[in-house]
């Protein structure tokens, strides 16, 4: 069937399959050249090293995420210990999300192609293997299944929101906004249908609430947690400025042209970023102003996401990207509301300006995505893989390994497939336990603990630092340093601390 047989906003099924395969193959090229960084290793190591499901939930209790992604990796790691399986699973989920978007979203053909190779779908939520790709797939699936006409499938939509709650804390916030906007739309526009299916609707509401409660129970940190423990309920001007600036970071994630470009933005001046963030927010509200249910979804979701950023966790670009996903979902669902749910006074934003606004946003996302892909092919994302390969090639992997910062050292642990002694919390391990035993030590304290470890174990210590050891240390032998890394914390300086130690420095 020829292309012109399809509506302007649709692609043929053959084109959808071709673009999805292209997305997967280009993503495969990138993941094969992408050294895993700490957050990617963390979930994989927890899934791989957990002996049971009970142990799995016990091990990720400090991470601040619900268990959907960990359960998936626990299952995959029963069959293989190769972390490439993590990346392939993640890329497959991202590709499935792209297929759903191409097949069911109401955007133009050009906008669809621009979007799928944009920064978030192509790099942050595809190449970087985190727990956010399942959330994107579930969000897009919800939008695709939200029907223009009845019968409404309340239980199916609720089941998707239940799973979305298990993807991340941002999934919980989006699921709540989607559920409330759906309920308000039904109460105001379809009371007769709702009355006829009230038991199904109540069961669906119970399922969503169950998903929220289960997620919150998993997100509650242990009493000795050392990760993101504070809350900000007072006024903090700089923090509020940064919070609103995340709108720009999410909509226009163009990175600065630096070696450590990740989590940066080309616009760094906070007041300029605030100004353009407010413009983008105003533009988003104008696009949705004639679709009350979609506008409600966007307002509720934006309030929830921005409040969480201000009150609890400032986050990074991957977290802020959920603001962009929220706008996308609101625009997608706004096309699904029939005229009866549209404000009666006039039309919505002129289609031409709507198309220009969305196309410009997607073009900025595409530029950022292509830059991220190109730079990740020329510079290692983390130096952990190169460090581990050097240790193996020099036959040093059998030595007693000790690491300075456990989050960085865990990357080398993952690639070596063996535990490392973490000097901050003073314990052996693979994945990081984000408790209060963790300490950031100065280099002299690191060396002192490493010497004590060598004395206790009566062994030479292969020491991994994330910074060069300053000054002379006669008992510390430099081996190699690895400093090419997009992630600034994941550079490594390798030393040998022999036992017995040499004479103390004068």
Please tell me about this protein's structure:
This protein is mostly helical and 506 residues long. Among the domains are: 230-339, no CATH class; 384-497, no CATH class. It is built from 20 helices and six strands. The protein has helices at residues 13-32, 38-49, 53-59, 68-77, 84-104, 109-116, 119-124, 132-145, 154-165, 169-189, 191-196, 198-219, 237-251, 270-288, 292-311, 317-334, 351-378, 384-393, 406-416, 443-457, and strands at residues 400-403, 420-422, 427-429, 461-465, 477-482, 492-497. A six-stranded mixed β-sheet has the order 3-2-1-4-6-5, with helices on both faces. A hairpin with a 4-residue loop joins strand 2 and strand 3 (427-429). Helix 6 (109-116) runs parallel beside helix 17. The longest helix is centred in the C-terminal third of the chain and has 28 residues, at 351-378. The chain is globular. 44% of the residues are buried. The model is unreliable at 1-7 and 338-346 (pLDDT under 50).
- In one word, what is the shape? globular
Largest sheet: 6 strands, mixed
Low-confidence stretches: 1-7, 338-346
How would you write the strand order of the largest sheet? 3-2-1-4-6-5
Number of helices: 20
Oligomer: single chain
Helix content: 55-70%
Distance between the termini: 83 Å
Strand content: 5-15%
Kindly provide the radius of gyration, computed on alpha-carbon positions and rounded to a whole number of angstroms.
25 Å
Mean pLDDT: 92
| Protein structure class | mainly alpha
Order of helices and strands: HHHHHHHHHHHHHHHHHHEHEEHEEE
Total beta-strand segments:
6
């Amino acid at each position: 069937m020829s292309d012109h047989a399809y509506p302007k906003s649709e692609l043929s099924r053959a084109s959808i399959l071709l673009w999805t395969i292209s997305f997967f193959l280009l993503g495969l090229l990138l993941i094969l050249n992408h050294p895993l960084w700490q957050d990617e290793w963390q979930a994989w190591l927890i899934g791989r090293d957990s002996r049971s499901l009970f142990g799995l939930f016990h091990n990720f209790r400090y991470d601040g995420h619900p268990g959907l992604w960990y359960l998936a990796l626990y299952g995959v790691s029963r069959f293989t210990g190769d972390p490439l399986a993590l990346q392939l699973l993640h890329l497959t989920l991202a590709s499935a999300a792209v297929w759903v978007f191409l097949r069911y979203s109401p955007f133009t053909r050009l906008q669809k192609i621009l979007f799928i190779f944009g920064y978030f779908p192509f790099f942050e939520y595809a190449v970087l293997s985190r727990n956010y790709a399942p959330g994107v797939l579930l969000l897009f699936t919800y939008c695709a299944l939200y029907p223009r006409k009845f019968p409404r499938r309340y239980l199916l939509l609720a089941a998707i929101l239940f799973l979305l709650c298990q993807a991340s804390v941002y999934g919980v916030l989006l699921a709540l906004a989607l559920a409330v906007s759906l309920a308000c739309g039904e109460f105001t526009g379809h009371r007769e249908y709702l009355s006829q299916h009230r038991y199904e609707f109540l069961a669906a509401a119970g399922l969503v609430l169950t998903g929220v409660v289960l997620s919150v129970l998993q997100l509650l940190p242990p009493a000795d947690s050392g990760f993101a423990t504070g809350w900000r309920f007072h006024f903090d001007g700089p923090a509020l400025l940064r919070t609103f600036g995340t709108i720009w970071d999410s909509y226009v994630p163009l990175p600065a042209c630096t070696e450590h470009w990740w989590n940066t933005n080309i616009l760094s001046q906070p007041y300029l970023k605030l100004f353009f963030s407010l413009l983008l927010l105003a533009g988003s509200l104008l696009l949705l102003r004639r679709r009350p249910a979609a506008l409600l979804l966007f307002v509720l979701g934006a309030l929830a996401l921005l409040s969480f950023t201000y009150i609890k966790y400032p986050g990074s670009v991957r977290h802020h990207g959920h603001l962009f996903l929220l706008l996308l979902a609101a625009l997608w669902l706004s096309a699904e509301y029939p005229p009866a749910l549209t404000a009666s006074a006039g039309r919505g934003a002129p289609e031409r300006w709507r198309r220009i606004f969305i196309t410009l946003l997607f073009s900025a996302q595409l530029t950022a995505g292509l830059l991220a892909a190109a730079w990740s092919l020329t510079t290692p994302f983390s130096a952990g893989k190169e460090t581990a390969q050097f240790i193996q090639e020099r036959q040093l992997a059998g030595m007693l390994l000790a690491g300075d910062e456990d989050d960085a050292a865990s990357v080398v642990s993952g690639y070596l497939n063996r535990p490392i002694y973490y000097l901050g919390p003073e314990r052996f391990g693979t994945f990081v336990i984000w408790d209060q035993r963790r300490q950031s030590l100065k280099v002299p304290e690191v060396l002192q603990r490493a010497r004590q470890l060598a004395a206790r174990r009566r062994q030479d210590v292969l020491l991994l630092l994330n910074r060069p050891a300053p000054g002379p240390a006669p008992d510390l032998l430099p081996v190699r340093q690895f400093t090419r890394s997009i992630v600034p914390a994941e550079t490594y300086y390798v030393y040998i601390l022999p036992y017995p130690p040499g004479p103390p420095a004068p």
